[in-house]
């Protein structure tokens, strides 16, 4: 019997948090369930967009943090 997989199962699968047995079950289920495969593709696409999002603060944010730190006298004056 093929198990019913939830969105949480697919998210765990996309992030490689499923066991080898669970991964094989999900892959097998996707072969026969187009809706499950479509949900997987959507979640995987979202993950890829999140992974490619800029992950560094802007120069303005860095300057604000440094200015705040200087106002607390945490950084030595130059």
Distance between the termini: 70 Å
The whole-number mean of residue pLDDT values reads 90
Helices and strands, in N-to-C order?
Answer: HHHH
Low-confidence stretches: none
Oligomer: single chain
Number of strands: 0
**Which percent bin holds the helix content?**
55-70%
- Helices and strands: which structural class? mainly alpha
> In what range is the share of β-strand residues?
under 5%
Q: What radius of gyration results from the CA coordinates?
A: 22 Å
Inertia-based shape: elongated
How does the major sheet shape up? none
Q: How many separate helices?
A: 4
Describe what this molecule looks like in 3D.
This protein is mainly alpha-helical. It has helices at 7-14, 20-32, 34-52, 59-71. The longest helix has 19 residues, at 34-52. The model has no long low-confidence stretch (mean pLDDT 90).
How would you summarize what this structure contains?
This protein is an all-alpha fold. Helices cover 68% and strands 0% of the residues.
Topology, pairings included?
Layout: H1 7-14, H2 20-32, H3 34-52, H4 59-71
Helix pairs in contact: 1-3, 2-3
List keywords for this structure.
single chain, 78 residues, mainly alpha, elongated
């Amino acid at each position: 019997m093929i198990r019913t997989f939830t969105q949480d199962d697919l998210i765990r699968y996309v992030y490689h948090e499923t066991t080898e047995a669970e991964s094989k079950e999900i892959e097998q289920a996707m072969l026969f369930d187009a809706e499950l495969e479509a949900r997987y593709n959507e979640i995987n696409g979202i993950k890829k967009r999140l992974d490619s999002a800029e992950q560094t603060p802007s120069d303005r944010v860095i300057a604000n943090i440094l200015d705040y730190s200087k106002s607390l006298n945490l950084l030595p004056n130059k």
